[in-house]
Amino acid sequence: MTAVWACVRTDLRSRRRAWLGLALIVGLAGAVVLTAAAAARRTDTALPRFMVASRAPDALISPQGNGLGDFDADVAKLPEVADLGEVAGTPLVGIDAQGHVDPQLASPPASVDGRVGYDIYRPNVLSGRMPRPDRETEVLAIGTTAKRLHLKVGSRLTLVELSAEENNTNSFDPRRDHPRHTFTVVGVATMVDDVATRPAASGTHNLLLTPAWFKAHGDPSNLGYSGAFVRLRPGADLARLRQEVDQVASRHPEAGSGVFFSTYADRYRAERRFTRSQAVALGLFAVLAGAAALLIVGQAMTRHLASGAADHPTLRALGMARGQVLAASMIPAAGAASAGAVLAAGLAALASPLGPVGTARLAEPHPGVAVNLGLLGVGASVIAALLAAWVALPAWRTASAAEPASGASSGTATGWAGSVTRAVERSGLPPSAAVGARMALEPGRARTAVPVRSAVVGSVLGLAALVAAFCFVTDLGHLVSTPHLYGTTWDLGLDAQSGFGSFSPDQVGAVLASAPDVAASAGGQYGSLTIGGRAVAAVGLDDLRGHLFPTLLEGRRPAGPDEIVLGTNTLRRAHRSVGQSVDVDAGAGARPMRIVGRAVFPALGRGDFSATDLGEGAATTAAVLASPDAPPGSYNFMLLRLAPGADRHAAIVRLGQTAAGSGCVPGQCPAVTPRPADMQSFASVRWTPVVLAGLLALLAAATIGHALVTSVRRRRRDLAILKTLGFVRRQVSAAVAWQATTLVGLALLVGIPLGLATGRWGWALFARQLGVGSETSFPALAVLVMVPTALVVANLVSALPARSAGLTRPALVLRSE
Q1: At CB < 8 A and 24+ separation, what contacts does 265-271 make?
Q2: Quick one: which of 90, 121, 96, 94 has its CA closest to 105?
Q3: Distance between CA 686 and CA 481 in Å, rounded?
Q4: For a Cys staple, 139 with which of 26, 183, 442, 446, CB 3.0–4.6 Å?
Q5: Quick check: helix, strand or coil at residue 281?
């Protein structure tokens, strides 16, 4: 082993800069992969960890009357209930600049018993702190309300108190002298069930007032609502709990005639699906980036090993066994791979605050640096092992060869490479261009051999990854910015009392009469259907004028109460296809319905509860979901599509005036249907693939630079001969620049088509999983910009190797040869 260690020390001493450069490349490539993998893991676990930290409720029990006190106390004693916290909707509202009620600042909740927000249903505080329970003027701002009103820690907010009459009639009389309450925002937060979905139109998630305020100002006869957030015991029977709650309500007349009972399991599953889709996409990128990085870095290490194999025949002739030569080659390579892997783990740990990504970032209970020692340790070990395995076979071959490996059987390029070099020679370009093309494509032989194929493969993979990422981002941007692609085929929507009331037939007629510029309209009912044992958010739609329906991917719209259209993912889970029948329960028992179409659904839902979303949901006729006591022709909401060329602003003003007298919340109707939660989620991270692919492109540029440095060092004799034949310093430097240009030019010719094909394939796969159409768009601008940018970067990378080549001193080099 003495001879082996002597060779290793000599190699490390003579090529220490090259080995250090390889270790840095391994570290950069590994950091990209490990950062993406760690962010994917953190994104996937953010919501479950938030649920634990939040002590998330399992159900909300809210009577029509007042449930505070004895009713809630009896509910807490039920055997299925493990814990309970009381909340009440205060009679406070926000007033906008025009003197109208702000619907997103209506009836902000107050923690009645000091448990909601503090012990149960704890929010994730993004900035600031929780309000002190004993301070009545402190308030917590939640979700999009804080963003919309630009509330931050220290902001002051004034709300007015409605009278009991105004509160009961959902009205506001500006002529009255209303009590005013001024609050100080001490924290901004998000709730566990509001991570990936829109806040309630009625303002359920807007502010959180303290128990001190409720104790000082709360009036049980003047509440917007009262409710209890409940945590259930393991294995609790929800059907039995619902029956027991109804029995408790029958003993408490103050609770009113009915109890609203809502469970959160479906909501949490939907939110987990949103964050998991982001995690899966990031994890898939980590796998693809890892494969690309292995090819790029592995090729660079193979090239470096081959460049040091010229002395192997001499070592064999001096008596070293093949195993000793192999060990002398592998030890520095394994050392560089291990050092790079450790560096990658360290960089990934420093980059951990980049995760989670997307909406999961709102759910992260412990933001900042989070070192996943298990993942980073295993990842670093895998990086070192894979790279060692990658170079083992080439190292064995070079150790066994009687002559140095060159990467080619001859020093002259043949086939397409020879055609390219001959074309450059005949093109009339300066001699330095022809020399540079030959240096890029001809591997050389013996001691001057340079494995050029690895440099070409590395640059192709880097550019292909960048083009594929731009394709994906372009298609995602096209989807996010094109409403009909995510199901919205209308311009405006009107919700009756935030979706909880309904438009009467006369009110529907009044809206249509006031909308002469409306080309098509539909009336709808919100609801939920049980399909295959799972609750599915659903809408029922009837045409009122023309034809209006979410975007159909297959089949047709329902024509009767026995037909249904499903989202792609809902259809997949039901193990059905268009044309087949499925058992559907709308509340009166399961019955078969024929699946007549597959559609993309926008966000259509009742208030803050489950809504349709892209591939999730069902649509049928309004009669299927209508309440039994609702008069025929009444609807929860209306959808309107304006005629081409219609004055949108005038139509909105006219419809708003009519809607205000037709059961629609003032200032909220008409409204644009919000993008589905999936769209909002992906829109927030749409540039992440480009950033990560850009790091791969930088890695490819680094490997090109490494290839140029290796080529200049290995071909010193050739460069010296060129200078002897008359090349001046500028021409020798230009030859190296042309070498880089040739490499990148070939990478563009191959990488752009490969990247386009990969991007299209990846988008088609992603769209199919998302449940939308796979319509694509070409990133023409990105590709046009990429071509000159890549060439400029290549010449910048070649600057130092070109300068080194230009400084070659022929006498010294040829004398040493």
Answers
A1: 265/58, 266/535, 266/610, 267/193, 267/197, 267/609, 267/610, 268/47, 268/51, 268/56, 268/192, 268/193, 270/196, 270/197, 270/610, 270/613, 270/616, 270/677, 271/47, 271/193, 271/195, 271/196, 271/197
A2: 94
A3: 12
A4: 183
A5: helix
**Cis ω before 356 (30° cut-off from 0):** yes
Closest CA to 483 of 618, 600, 615: 600
Residues 350 and 710: their CA atoms lie apart, in Å, by 31
- The bridge status of strand 637-642 relative to strand 581-585 is unpaired
Nearest partner of 487 among 337, 677, 645, 627, judged by Cα: 677
Which one, of 687, 42, 130, lies nearest residue 369 by Cα?
42
Does the pLDDT of residue 498 top 70, yes or no? no
DSSP class of residue 769 equals H
pTM: 0.68
- Cα-flanking dihedrals φ and ψ of residue 31, to 5°? -65, -40
What's the one-letter identity of residue 348? A
| Unique residue bearing structure tokens 């402190």 | 138
Spatial distance between the Cα atoms of 671 and 660, rounded to a whole number of angstroms: 13
- Per-residue pLDDT tens for 9-46? 877 777 777 788 888 888 988 998 999 899 999 999 99
For residue 191, what are its two tokens? 């709730």
Instruction: Kindly list the distances between the CA atom of residue 352 and the CA atoms of 33, 357, 652, in Å, as whole numbers in the listed order.
Output: 12, 11, 46
Query: What is the C-alpha to C-alpha distance for residues 84 and 802, in angstroms, rounded to an integer?
Result: 73
Q: How far, in Å, CA of 697 to CA of 301, rounded?
A: 18
Radius of gyration of the chain (CA): 34
In the block, tokens 């990422």 appear at 469
| Closest by CA position to 190, among listed 213, 172, 206, 173 | 206
Q: Which two tokens stand for residue 45?
A: 């676990």
End-to-end CA distance of the chain: 30
Query: Around Cβ 595, how many Cβ atoms within 10 Å?
Result: 25
Residue of 186 and 479 predicted with greater confidence: 186
